[in-house]
């Protein structure tokens, strides 16, 4: 079939226009992604982090106050005034309640009068004894009279001592009308208000708990105790073979920002739970922590060792086996089973399965054996990621099947 020159020109122009259109379409980002997707998808990868990490065991416990006092009066009487800063701090010796002191003041004055009377009688007994002793050698005073004078003098001395003790007791009772804080710490609400009659030893006025330092109680499992903690118990000579640092974190805190000292290990293992009660002491100079708060405890059980850390979103699970995808030769993805440990600063410790320097897939719809185009990024914890896309991306774990 013969083609005219005009038709050939039109056909050639159409081919050129078509080629131009193809070029334009391929030059768009959509076309680039469509072309790259079937072949080598671009996925973020990062090199594992290697740092020194101390082996540790984690427990849960609660904060407690070393000293707690239910404040009760030591004498009975009406409450005249209350100066309790409810929920605030008090120092030892600070006045909190004032009882009616007038009856005790009267009792003190009466005791002081009894003391003066006893002292006057003792002075007279001393004079009588001195006179009898001076006249006895001349026979002017009988032996019986001399013995009577001596007995009376000793009796008056005893009366003076008893009167002096009564004065001290009355003065002490008077001082008890000022109910002061026996310890420094945070005071609770007022439980008995002004105008009520407080009964000695029975009426609870308020409660005070010490807040600096605080104690942290937690239970250690038997295996951890046998392997590590038993070495921190003092022996018969008071010596220990291990010092175990303790770190504490609260419910609203990341990690373990507070440092404590292990100062107590229970004397026996509880047979019902197989645990040992332990206690650490934590400083609380600003009083921000309160007794009774839930606490997370990390107990370092050995010296720091080199460990591999990765982002948790790179970890997948397949029939109970955790794994990661490793960037292998030729940018091919390899399946690697791993054993995971605890979280340190937002990154997961890999106990086995990865070597320092290896690069893993952070996220992406990839599977083992697939060739990818790696996009290098840094390993970081989810808390450090700021881009919403990084937090919402599909983990590599969900893509492998």
UniProtKB/TrEMBL annotation:
Domain Multidrug resistance protein MdtA-like C-terminal permuted SH3: 306-365
Main location group: other
Short name of one Pfam family: BSH_RND
Cell compartment(s), UniProt: Cell envelope
Region (Disordered) residue spans: 375-401
Domain Multidrug resistance protein MdtA-like barrel-sandwich hybrid: 68-204
Protein name as annotated: Efflux RND transporter periplasmic adaptor subunit
Organism of derivation: Brevundimonas naejangsanensis
Lineage, uppermost ranks: Bacteria, Pseudomonadati, Pseudomonadota, Alphaproteobacteria, Caulobacterales
């Amino acid at each position: 079939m013969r083609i005219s020159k005009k038709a050939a020109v039109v056909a050639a122009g159409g081919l050129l226009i078509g080629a131009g259109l193809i070029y334009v379409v391929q030059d768009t980002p959509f076309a680039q992604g469509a072309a790259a997707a079937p072949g080598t998808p671009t996925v973020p990868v990062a090199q594992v982090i290697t740092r020194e990490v101390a082996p540790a065991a984690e427990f849960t416990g609660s904060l407690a106050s070393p000293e707690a006092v239910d404040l009760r009066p030591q004498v009975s009487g009406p409450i005249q005034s209350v100066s309790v800063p409810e929920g605030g701090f008090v120092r030892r010796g600070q006045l909190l309640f004032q009882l009616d002191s007038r009856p005790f003041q009267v009792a003190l004055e009466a005791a002081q009068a009894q003391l003066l009377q006893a002292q006057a009688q003792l002075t007279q007994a001393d004079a009588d004894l001195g006179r009898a002793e001076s006249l006895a050698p001349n026979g002017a005073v009988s032996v019986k009279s001399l013995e009577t004078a001596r007995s009376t003098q000793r009796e008056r001395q005893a009366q003076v001592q008893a009167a002096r003790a009564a004065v001290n007791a009355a003065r002490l009772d008077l001082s008890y009308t000022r109910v002061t804080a026996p310890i420094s710490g945070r005071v609770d609400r007022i439980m008995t208000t002004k105008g009520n009659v407080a009964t000695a030893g029975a009426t609870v006025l308020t409660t005070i708990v010490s807040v600096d330092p605080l104690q942290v109680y937690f239970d250690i499992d038997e295996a951890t105790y046998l392997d590590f903690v038993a070495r921190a118990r003092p022996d018969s000579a008071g010596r220990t073979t291990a010092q175990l640092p303790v770190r504490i974190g609260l419910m609203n805190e990341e990690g373990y920002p507070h440092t404590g000292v292990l100062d107590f290990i229970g004397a026996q293992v509880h047979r019902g739970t197989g645990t040992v009660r332990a206690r650490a002491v934590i400083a609380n100079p600003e009083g921000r922590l309160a007794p009774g708060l839930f606490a997370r405890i990390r107990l370092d059980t050995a010296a720091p060792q080199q460990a591999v850390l990765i982002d948790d979103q790179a970890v997948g699970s397949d029939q109970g086996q955790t794994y990661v995808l490793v960037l292998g030769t030729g940018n091919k993805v390899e399946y690697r089973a791993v054993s995971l440990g605890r979280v340190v600063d937002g990154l997961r410790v890999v106990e086995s399965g990865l070597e320092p320097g290896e690069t893993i897939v952070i996220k992406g719809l990839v599977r083992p054996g697939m060739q990818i185009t790696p996009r290098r990024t840094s390993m970081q914890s989810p808390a450090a990621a700021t881009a919403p896309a990084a937090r919402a991306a599909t983990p590599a774990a969900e893509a492998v099947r």
